[in-house]
Write a structure and sequence with these properties.
Blueprint lengths: L7 E4 L5 H10 L7 E6 L4 H6 L8 E5 L5 H15 L4 E4 L5 E2 L7 H29 L2 E6 L12 H21 L4 E7 L12 E2 L1 H8 L5 H17 L4 H13 L6 E3 L2 H12 L2 H11 L12 H5 L19
Parallel strand pairs: 1-2, 1-4, 2-3, 4-6, 5-8, 6-7, 7-9
Helix pairs in contact: 1-8, 3-4, 4-5, 6-7
The chain binds NADP nicotinamide-adenine-dinucleotide phosphate.
NADP nicotinamide-adenine-dinucleotide phosphate binds next to helix 1.
């Protein structure tokens, strides 16, 4: 990398949560970086509403990571304007809440297009430029869900496991080119993003009609939102870790993003799998009721919103 050229950072999903926190930090570091903050068309205004403004070294652009046209035209623009991307932060992501039986292929595609295929296509668009410079960084935002799976979150975990797998292969492939690949693995984060979950239609029907899996959604939904509200990690703390990775001379392949991520890394490494799965299953909230047909807690819920977000998001509801 030329010493006079400021590294160009591309951040996806910058309209809320971790992505927004990250560009807020980067907006104060334009003496060190040039920044391309991206969000879906309809969400760009959230960046402006947060008070983050454009300048010579900080631009905002529309990017739906699932759109090949938008990916390519943005990369062309960055190539012409600033000679390509030096640091790619694949942050944009969605999370489905659905048991496996309630997922459709369209749900699974949307989950993977956003969390896996989109980020991987973006990486490919950056690689030749990075190899030419023999320098670059790829930071993929994974999750504790990328090292362990939880009921009702199968599609999300599958997409993050896939992202972890391909990032690990890429890590080795890129060592000779001085391109550093890192996965940051946040655990639960204190933010409103649990309200952004996507829900399969069958999951919603099941909750509304006290179907077979209704108590799975009830217990897991309450459990996850409680853990997120009590979490010590915030989008700001994760964003600060991403900035550290950007500046680290030899960043590791995996960086736990929070204390619970550290705990689960240790647990999955040292506890024999058969015990680990048993312990985890027994610790699941309300698991004794699952499969019994009893929905006492669900019936006591004052609103459906307590169990599942009111605005169901899914492939049939996407703009
Ligand atoms: N929150 C957690 O507890 C947690 C834990 C572990 C890992 N993570 C990971 O951290 C990353 C950021 O999540 P967050 O917590 O900051 O959640 P968030 O507040 O819901 O932010 C997600 C971001 O991704 C964007 N996005 C969704 N689909 C997109 C698409 N097709 N193209 C471009 N952008 C898209 C959203 O944009 P819109 O505003 O347009 O929807 C939003 O800016 C995700 O990869 C997530 O899996 C989060």
């Amino acid at each position: 990398m030329e010493t006079t050229r400021k590294p160009v950072v591309l951040v996806t999903g910058a309209s809320s949560g971790i992505g927004l926190a990250l560009i807020e930090i980067l907006a104060r570091k334009t003496d060190q970086y040039r920044v391309v903050a991206t969000a879906r068309h309809q969400s760009l205004e959230k960046i402006a509403a947060a008070g983050v403004t454009e300048s010579d070294d900080f631009i905002c652009r529309p990017l739906d990571v699932t759109s090949p046209e938008e990916r390519q035209s943005l990369m062309r623009e960055i190539e012409q304007r600033w000679e390509g991307v030096d640091i790619l932060v694949n942050n944009a992501g969605i999370s489905y809440r659905s048991v496996v039986e309630h997922l459709t292929e369209a749900d699974e595609r949307l989950q993977f297009d956003t969390n896996f295929f989109g980020p991987v296509h973006l990486i490919r668009l950056c690689l030749s430029g990075m190899r030419r410079k023999r320098a670059g960084r790829i930071i993929n935002v994974s999750s504790v869900g990328g090292m362990m799976a939880m009921p009702t979150m199968g599609a999300y975990s599958a997409s993050k496991f896939a992202l972890e797998g391909i990032s690990e292969a890429l890590y080795y492939e890129m060592i000779p080119w001085n391109i550093k690949v890192t996965l940051i693995q946040p655990g639960f984060i204190r933010s409103n993003s649990f309200k952004n979950v996507y829900v399969s239609q069958a999951a919603r029907d099941s909750v509304e009609n006290s179907g077979t899996y209704a108590n799975y959604y009830w217990h897991m939904g309450k459990f996850i939102s409680r853990l997120m509200q009590r979490a010590r990690a915030t989008p700001d703390t994760i964003a600060a870790k991403i900035v550290n990775i950007m500046q680290h001379p030899r960043p590791p392949l995996r960086v736990p993003g929070s204390l619970d991520a550290r705990f689960f890394t240790t647990m999955t490494r040292f506890i024999p799998r058969r015990f680990y799965h048993r312990i985890l299953y027994r610790s699941l909230p309300g698991v004794k009721l699952w499969g019994t047909g009893r929905h006492d807690a669900l019936e006591a819920a004052s609103t459906l919103e307590e169990v599942i977000p009111a605005n169901r998001k899914g492939p049939d509801t996407e703009a």
